[in-house]
Amino acid sequence: MVMSGFRKLRRGVLLGVPLVVVASAALTLGPRQFGFVSDLPEAAYYLSFSFTRMVVAYALSLGFALLYGYYAAANRGAERVMIPVLDILQSVPILGFFPVALLFFVDAFSHTGVPWIGTNLASIFLIFTSMAWNMVFGVYESLKSLPGDLREATDSFGVRGWQRVREVLLPATVNRLVYNSILSWTGGWFFLVAAEIIASSTLPGIGSYLSTAAADGNGDALVAGLVVLIILIIILDFLLWRPLSRWAEKYRYDTTPSGDADAATTPVRMGIAPLRRAVAGIARRVRTGFVTASAPIVSLGNYALGAGPTRRRSAVTTGVRYLTLGVILIVCWLILIAAGVAIYSIFIHPLPAAAVRLIRLLPEALGSSIGRLIAAYGISLGIAFPLALFLTRRPKAGRVGMPLVEIVASVPATAVFPLIVFALLTDLGPQLTSILMLMTGMIWYLFFNLLSGLRAIPPDLDEAARSYGVRGWPYYRRVLLPAIFPAFITGSITALGGGWNTLIVAEYLSVTAGTSTKVIYQVSGIGQLIDVGFHENLTSVYVAALLALVAAVVAINEVVWKPLYRRAVEKYRYD
Amino acid sequence: MALIEVRDIKKDYPSHHGTISIINGVSFDVADSDFLAIVGPSGCGKSTLLRIIQGLERATSGEIRFRGRPVDAVSNEMAMVFQSFALMPWLTIKENVAFGLTARGWTPEKIAAQIDRYISVTGLVGFEEAYPRELSGGMRQRVGLARALAVEPAVLLMDEPFSALDALTAEGLREEVLQLWRDPELPPEAVILVTHNIEEALAMADRVVVMSHRPSRVLSVVPVTLSRPRERKSEAFYELTDYLYSLITEGSPPPSAGAKPAPSETLSTGPGDTQ
Amino acid sequence: MPTIFPKASPSELQGLLVLINEHKGTEDVARLADDLDLEIDEILPSLDYAETLGLVKVSDGRATLTDTGRRMLSVSIRERKTILRDLLRKTTLFKTILRALESAPEGRLTEDDVQRLLAFTTAPSDSYVLNIINWGRYAELFRYDSDEHALIAIRSRSQGRSPPSSPPSAPGTPGARVAPAASGQVGDGSGSPKDLAYPANAVAT
Question: Across all residues in chain A, what is the average pLDDT?
Fold first, then answer.
């Protein structure tokens, strides 16, 4: 019923194992045994900067989420504006906007004599934008789904003011807020490290420490940086997130009141891995987000194509409809880009030749980025699916493997980039390295969604298959794959979302020392153009590439994922 | 003067096809020490009516008066027991019982005393520090009851309080509610019980307000003068049950009964008639 | 012989007593179930445990309230808990638990201890264990810490003759203040219009 002391211990041991594995891997990777140890203090010193940024950004996000979420949930008029705005904000690849934020904040604080405030604020702003939306939705949705009877009881007993906040509203948000915080925190690391890599020496932190180490070919420092980061993440997981999520269980409310005696005797589930819950959270978010966000677009599409909203359409017409819509959207974006560039060139100054050359490369760059994404996605799927299947079908392997996977997955992909560059660039070449990096940014979304999909297959479906002797390929084709299809789509959407963000750090890696920028490696792509535009002060290139990126993300979402998602929801759910 | 006067309450809801009338002119009185049940077919708005009485919902027209004064905000002279218990899952039993007390502005000593008293009379001692999810449905509803009684309301409002419970538990809890109601030391002055269960109404109430299908109005107010404890197996009980059933299904009093309900004369003679 | 443990909740057991009482204290089990539109196996768990506790006698498919069963219905909710406590103390199940609690360090039994302790009952699943714990809590035989999943002995109470109500943790004993009204309340003519009510159980008085 509840985890016994022994089981707790065993779990602890299981989670300790990966630590040992990681540590010994680090030892063998380091050129000299234990050579990295002497670098640990310095790495920890840099990590403390990063950690401080995370804490500040988290505190800001928490306050923002509570206020924004509460206001959106309490005020119907505000809700109608606030929620769609949030939906747009969270679908944008935020890393692309980091350079804008950097320029803005650095400029704003350049006169104060303390320029580091600007870079730090920019990075905190970036982490904030990666953390906040998801937490706002946590607050908003838990307040919206607060059972009506609890609301009524609160009114009925005249509970108002501070007591209402303390005993009803805050507790109602705790459960979702904790799980979404874990998710936000994990995402936050990804963006923070990325920001530190992009801003390099102007933003001292674990990201710049790692990328500098990679640029200098300093393997010891690289390992030391990763070791301190992983240790911090594990410590936080054990001392903060796990206890927090256990505590948050208390704040769950059932939406369906159960009056039978059994309800009371259902044991409280303990020790749910926070990350898995967090991924389930993303899935839910994607689902609701898509339904709300696509509503106006779908009605626009209906209007454009003269189709009645209730008429049944074949997959082909649906496809055509979305394709048309996608094309319209892309054209709109291209016009916007052209207009932007035109305005820029008219009002500021003519485009430098270098910029013109780079902007001409835009379609090609977009193409190769998409190609890279597809390759990374395919390989990720090829690894994630068998792995998820193995861990769910072999309970014993799952018990050992899951904690391991969870630890590995909790390491921010961006932190591994310098290591990948350092260890594998010469062997793999830039193209494969970049694809490998994209994979690290995508694979876990796929894995955890597939895992939850596999776990959610009703046992009676499996039993039916067994009783009718459906095995082998027919089993996969007719039972397993359809059953996990919605989870697969959600996983793909989130993985691609992660991939678009990863592009910006996976196609270009440079270190700035003083005024000179040393490019460690680059491959042609949209992410590279954004970085080059930023680093070489070619604002027009940066703007054009960013707009093209956003256009591509939105268009692909509209043309590919939304129709697939609708289909998945309509056809393959089992409830 | 009646404790509560319900005067010509109407309630409309907006819908896709204009407005839907849920309650169409309902009036009745609740006297001091009245145990009143409201029965009617499902969807007749009896739960809505209960919420209007406390001021949780607004009527489209009509008026509720409590001791002669109109109820135009949530009345803290009344307390509600909910069908789904509506306990805060994150508060302990003790904190749940205290839920309505903090809002009354009583002294901490008074609040502590109230909590202890009502936890005790409802048989919840031993569960003070428990959370609702640890409790069975029956125990949870006792917490709902303790929470309502603890604010010492003049009127206890009960919205289908037993219908989320299994049959045996409901049977036991009804008896407990009656035991608490009998205790002169305990609040409330009056009880209004909303239920779809006619036998339950007849087993518990002094008077039964019978409501019609939507848009609902009062078909009849039937005094129940059967002696207590009510014997559900008695001939008189059956007769009264049948009478109410026919009232509800036919939508009007059977011709033999006339406008004023006849059973009060033919049926038993308990001393409990407060009419 | 396996130790008998409750499969129904205290609320259900009490509902059963009320139900039998409505049938004048004795009734065919099938009829009882029928009265509440239940299947027979839905009232059997309560019936079994009521019989174990000596509140009901079952013979030839007929359930009859015992004197203790009648007494239970005639008293206040609080006093019912006292009666129940005395009855539960006599069962092998609770005797075993209480003895283990007495000898346990600091008067605490962990979840594991309880599981082990109850292992001799016929395969109690988790939900049954929780139900047993809730019986003990309801009858105030022990306290329970749901965070630590531990049973805690109620120490300050002397064995056997103990006053009803609050465990030591509760400040002030409300029992004493309200208790006088408990059994004498019915029909004591205190002037309130509410005492139009009848004794809870005429049979018992």
Answer: 77
